[in-house]
C-alpha cells in the first residue's frame, strides 16, 4: 500500500478537524484500493456482495450527492445523471465491476477535489444546503461533514475486511 495518510491535527478548531478527518478517511479508503487489479476490486467476502470497487464508486457518488446535489442544489453529472436510480438503487456498487482500477480511482479523486473546492467557498458551517429534503428541514454544512466522516468510516471498516481477505494487508 501507499504511504500512510496524514493524521488529523490533535488540537484542531472545529472546521479544521472536520475537514482533516474527512480527508484522512478519504485517503485511507484510497489506500485500500491502490495497487489492486480488477479481479481483486471485485472480490467479495462471506455472504456480502460488497467489493472494494463498488465501495469506492459509491463514495464517489456520495461526494457528488452531498456537495453538488445537496449543498449547491445542482443536478448530478455523469456517470450518475442518467442512471435510473428507481430501477437500480445499487447501480453504483454493481456497475463498478465493469470499471478499471484507474477509472475508479480517478472518479473518486475528481469527486473529492470537487467537494473540497465547494467547501472552500463556504465560510460558515451553519450554512444550510440548497436542496430541501422531503422532510422540509434542510441540513447545514456541518451536518454534511459529520455525515461524510461517518459514511467513510463505515465503509473503510468494510474495506479493511475485504482488503485483508485479498492479500492480508491491514492497517489504517
The ordered H/E elements are: HHHHHH
When the domains are counted, the total is 1
Q: Which consecutive residue ranges, at least 5 long each, have pLDDT under 50?
A: none
Distinct helical segment count: 6
Estimated helix fraction: 55-70%
Structural class: mainly alpha
Strand content: under 5%
Give the tally of β-strands.
0
Tell me about the biggest sheet?
none
Pfam families: MST (PF04978)
Protein name: DinB family protein
InterPro entries: DinB/YfiT-like, MST-like
List keywords for this structure.
mainly alpha, Four Helix Bundle (Hemerythrin (Met), subunit A), globular, 172 residues
Describe this structure in words.
- Pfam families: MST.
- This is DinB family protein.
- InterPro entries: DinB/YfiT-like (IPR034660), MST-like (IPR007061).
- The chain has a single domain (15-167), classed as dinb family like domain (Four Helix Bundle (Hemerythrin (Met), subunit A), Up-down Bundle).
- It has helices at residues 14-33, 38-41, 52-72, 91-95, 101-120, 141-167.
- The longest helix is centred in the C-terminal third of the chain and has 27 residues, at 141-167.
- The chain is globular.
- The protein has 172 residues and is mostly helical.
Q: What is this structure, in a nutshell?
A:
By secondary structure, the protein is an all-alpha fold. The chain has helices at residues 14-33, 38-41, 52-72, 91-95, 101-120, 141-167.
Per-chain topology:
Layout: H1 14-33, H2 38-41, H3 52-72, H4 91-95, H5 101-120, H6 141-167
Helix pairs in contact: 1-6, 3-5, 3-6
